[in-house]
Design a protein that fits this description.
Blueprint (H helix, E strand, L loop, with lengths): L1 H21 L3 E2 L5 E7 L6 H5 L1 H11 L4 E7 L9 H7 L4 E5 L22 H14 L1 H5 L4 E8 L3 E5 L8 H4 L3 E4 L2 H9 L3 E4 L5 H6 L5 E5 L14 E4 L6 E7 H6 L2 H35 L3 E4 L2 H10 L1 H13 L4 H17 L16
Helix pairs in contact: 3-11, 5-11, 5-14
Length: 362
C-alpha cells in the first residue's frame, strides 16, 4: 500500500516538474525573463547569424538585462509548418511564421504573396509595416497572437542549367521547372511550364539528374543550397515573395512588464527592416558573385512582364474572392497597397546604428 502511495506521489511530482519545465516564459531569482524563441532557419543562415542575435542583444540591453532570449533554430522546438499552432499553444513565446501556411487566416497579409507585389525583401518589409499602421484590418488578422514585425523572402526567379535560356512565355512552355512549394508549382504552371514540386533539399539532385530543367527559387539561398554549382542562367521574374510575421504568444506577452513590452514594440519597425535588408543584401552579394563568374541575368521587359501578369490573373481573382468572403473590397484594398508600395520604393528604411554588416549596403 505504501509503495502504491509513493508511486502515485512520485508520478505527481514528476508530472508537475515536466509541466513547470514546459512553461514558455520564465524568470530566474534575479528576475531575468527568458524568452523561448523558435527560429526554423538553421544555424548558418544569414538571418540567424546576422539579425536575430543582434535583436535579442538589443532587447537585453534596452531592458537593462531584464530579458534573455533562448533560441531554438532549425525546427528543434517546433516543425516549420506547425509553428503558428505551437506558438498559440505556448510551446514557445516568440516565433516567426510563414503566413501562407494559414491562407484563410492571413488573407490581407498574403496580398504581398501575390505576383509582383514587392521588388525585394526590404521593400516587402517596408510595405507591410506601413500597412500595419494605415490598414487596421491587417492587425485584426492577428487577434490570436501579438504581432511585432513583418518581412519576407527574396523574390522568386527561375534558374536554369547551362544552355537553357528562357526569355518568354513560349520558352517557359518547353521547360520542366521545380519549386519547393505548391504555390511555386502553380506559378510555373500558370505561365505554361511543367511545374513540379520538389523539396528544397532535393532541388540540386533534381537538376543534376535531369528531372527538371530549372528551379523557381529566391537568389539569396542559391549558394547555401548548392544551386549555384549547377545553374548559370537566371530569368529574373521577381514573381512573388513569402511573407514572415514575427509574433508572440498572448499569455507570454501579458506577463511582460509594460516597460519591457515598450522595448519590443519600439524595436519592431527596425527589426523588420533589418531582416528585409539582410535578405536583400545577401541576394545582391550572390548576384554580384555569379555575374563575376559569367552567369547570365535576364530581366523582363515591360511588355513581357505584362503578358505574364495576365497569365497570373487567376491568383488575383482567388484573392479577391477570399477578401469578399471577409467583407472587404479586394480591388480597392490592392489599390491602396500598391500606393503604399510605390511610396515605400521611394522611401526605403535607413539602417540603424545597431545593425550589423549584413543589414548595410557596402
Amino acid at each position: 500500500m505504501k509503495t502504491g502511495k509513493i508511486l502515485v506521489i512520485s508520478l505527481f511530482v514528476f508530472t508537475a516538474l515536466l509541466t513547470f519545465m514546459a512553461l514558455p516564459i520564465s524568470s530566474t531569482a534575479a528576475d531575468v525573463i527568458e524568452i523561448k524563441a523558435n527560429a526554423f532557419h538553421p544555424i548558418g543562415h544569414r538571418l540567424y547569424d546576422d539579425a536575430f542575435p543582434l535583436y535579442s542583444e538589443q532587447i537585453q540591453k534596452r531592458t537593462n538585462g531584464k530579458v534573455k532570449f533562448t533560441w531554438f533554430p532549425g525546427h528543434t522546438l517546433i516543425p516549420q509548418a506547425k509553428t503558428y499552432d505551437g506558438l498559440k499553444s505556448g510551446i514557445c513565446d516568440w516565433a516567426y511564421i510563414i503566413t501562407a501556411h494559414n491562407p484563410n487566416e492571413f488573407v490581407l497579409t498574403n496580398a504581398l504573396n501575390l505576383p509582383f507585389a514587392a521588388r525585394n525583401s526590404a521593400h516587402a518589409a517596408r510595405i507591410l509595416w506601413e500597412m500595419s499602421k494605415d490598414i487596421p484590418e491587417l492587425k485584426a488578422e492577428y487577434k490570436k497572437v501579438v504581432p511585432l514585425f513583418w518581412y519576407s523572402t527574396a523574390p522568386q526567379h527561375v534558374h536554369t542549367k547551362p544552355g537553357i535560356e528562357p526569355k518568354t512565355l513560349e520558352d517557359l512552355a518547353k521547360l520542366r521547372i521545380g519549386g519547393p512549394g505548391p504555390i511555386h508549382v502553380k506559378f510555373m504552371s500558370s505561365l505554361g511550364a511543367a511545374g513540379q514540386q520538389v523539396a528544397p533539399g532535393d532541388l540540386y539532385t533534381a537538376l543534376q539528374r535531369g528531372m527538371v530543367d530549372g528551379v523557381i527559387f529566391p537568389e539569396a539561398p542559391l549558394r547555401s543550397q548548392g544551386l549555384t554549382e549547377i545553374t548559370s542562367y537566371h530569368l529574373m521574374l521577381a514573381i512573388g515573395v513569402d511573407v514572415f510575421a514575427a509574433v508572440m504568444n498572448k499569455n507570454s506577452w501579458k506577463k511582460l512588464p509594460p516597460d519591457v513590452q515598450k522595448v519590443f514594440l519600439d524595436m519592431s519597425e527596425s527589426m523588420g527592416a533589418l531582416c528585409g535588408a539582410t535578405i536583400t543584401n545577401e541576394s545582391a552579394w550572390v548576384i554580384e558573385e555569379l555575374k563575376q563568374r559569367g552567369d547570365i541575368f535576364y530581366y523582363l521587359p515591360d511588355d513581357e512582364r505584362e503578358r505574364m501578369i495576365q497569365k497570373l490573373q487567376p491568383f488575383y481573382d482567388e484573392w479577391y474572392k477570399l477578401m469578399a468572403e471577409r467583407g472587404m473590397d479586394g480591388k480597392a484594398m490592392l489599390k491602396k497597397i500598391r500606393e503604399i508600395a510605390a511610396w515605400a520604393l521611394k522611401n526605403p528604411y535607413q539602417p540603424d546604428d545597431w545593425w550589423g554588416r549584413a543589414g548595410r549596403k557596402e
